[in-house]
Design a protein that fits this description.
The N and C termini lie close together (6 Å). α1 packs antiparallel against α3. By secondary structure, the chain is an all-alpha fold. The protein is elongated.
Length: 80
Amino acid sequence: MPILLFFVFAVILGPVLAWMYAQPKQVEAFEARRRKILASGGKDPINEPFGAHRPFKTNALWFGGIAGIGGSLMAWLLGA
């Protein structure tokens, strides 16, 4: 069952979350946050592994993997 939930969560949630991050409002929010951080001398968030600045495919892989691991862990902990 954990393997099944891994694939269900990865296939459904990964692309959905990546699509949500690809929306123009999210990209604008990222740019605004980036300007604030750079103005204060912080670390550039463009180096983050996933987010609104990354391509859809990269985000889908990251979010799918994270959601899949979470789903399989949840199934394992619940004894499904």
